[in-house]
Every structure is written in structure tokens, then in C-alpha cells.
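Milestone M4 deliverable, item 7.
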Amino acid sequence: MKPLESGARIALIAPAGPLQKPEELARAQENARTFGWEPIVALHARDRTGYLAGHDRDRLNDINVALRDPNIDGIWCLRGGYGMIRILADIDYDALSRTPKAIIGYSDITALHAAVQRKCRLVTYHGPTAREPLSELARDSFERAVVKQTDSCGTAPKAREINAGTAEGRLVGGNLAVLASLCGTPFIPDLSDGILILEDINEPVYRIDRMLQQLRLSGALTGCKAIVFGECVKCSDDAGGGGRGFDEVLGETAHALGVPCMAGIPVGHIDAQWTIPLGATATLDTKTRTLAVTSYPS
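Output delivered:
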């Protein structure tokens, strides 16, 4: 996967939920231009059908048009939301394998990352969607990952050591709820030998527990090297009525697997987030609270 240098042509696509405000598309175009890229707005990027960014066939067509166009260098998803899973089966993965392109986004876009990891084994970028204002930290990490292909992570001083240890492996994962929803489908990514990065929002701890158990029982976590949770935004300890803490529940899974675990890195539904190059190799050291990207596949 080549880095996206100045002059790259980037398709701005809404493959899941719709844009919420008119100014978001203009901001996305300007974000692309600040990296020296030429933004190409997909035909149906402004569509809305209920909670979806237009009909399935139109969102799918926008993706496949970009994947098949040799003049498009990357896809920067405009937002997450919901809807990616509805079109996974008909994406032209063969076109992507023939002409690899950068794919960028997070949250519901995890489904696309997962499918590409499973079908194509390419690096994709779990990072800010195109519509978002980019904080200084987010922009720096994004540039290091997507433009320079260097270490886009680093030390997270506020992270919490859940289960001590070190690990090396492929960066895998994304949104926990989306990953759990892929269990039993052909699109669940291979998490073996991986450092599993997770994030979520609006999920009380008992639901986090249930989704982690689902991944374990499905066998998806077999061979996983480590678990690193970003931010779990608005994830209440009390909503299940049991009063169990987030770290306790996460630690149960890590201890059962016998792997290092850390929580609280800057990943997820936050302004200051790292961009994670899924498929690249990284090392984790829970003692120093460090996640370091060490190499990108050629």
C-alpha cells in the first residue's frame, strides 16, 4: 500500500450513515485539500434514506466505482453511523486487490476494514472520518500513518495497565459492537497473532461484557496476542444494574486469554485520536503505556 502523497485523488464516500449538516461535506473537502489531495465527491454522498446515506445499491455503487477507477488513490469515508454491513457482500474486493487503495474511517467503517482484512489482507486506516474537524494530535497521527507510513501511535500516559506484559503482532480490530456483529459471517477478520484494538460508544458495561464473550465463544480471539482498548465513550458501569467496572470486565477477558491488556489509549469517538494502520505490525508495552507501529507491509 503506497502512502497518500500530495496530488492523490481521494473519493469522499458516505457508505453507512448520512451526513448531518450541510457544512460537513465542505469541511471534508477542505480536510482533503490540506494534505494536498484532490477530493472527489461520490455521486450519492449527500443522499439520505432514513438512517442510511441513501439506498444500499447507491452506496455500494459509490464504493465500487471508486475501487474500479485506476485514477482514485484512496477512499475517505465521510462518516460512520450504521449501514456498512448491509453492502459488504457485494463490494468488489477483486478490484481492490488488483489496485490497492487507502481506506480511511472508524466506528461503523470497522465492517469495511474487517472485510478488506479478510478478503484482501491490505492495510486500512482506522482514523477520523472526513467530515470531522482535525485536532492537532489527530492531524499529526493521521499524517504519520496515511502520508508518511511511520509510527502513528506512541506513549499514552493516561492509559491504564489492565494485564501486564509486552506483545508484537498485526494491528487488528476497531469498533467492538461492529466486530461482534460480524461473528458467524465471512467478514469477521483474522485476529490470530494480532494486537486487538477496540473502541466503542454508548454501550453500558454489561453489553461490553456480552460482546467480548461473543468474540471469545466464537473462537475469534483464539491466538490473539494482546488487547488494547481506546475510549469507551458514555459506557456506564451502572446501566446493567450490577455495578461491575469496565476495567474488571475487560481484564477478565485478557486474563482468560493470558494476554497483555491496556485501556485508555486515544482511539475512538474522541477529537484527539490516533490513526491505527490496521494490518501493520506493532509492539505493545503495558508498563510504559506504549503502542508503537514498527512496519508497514510493502
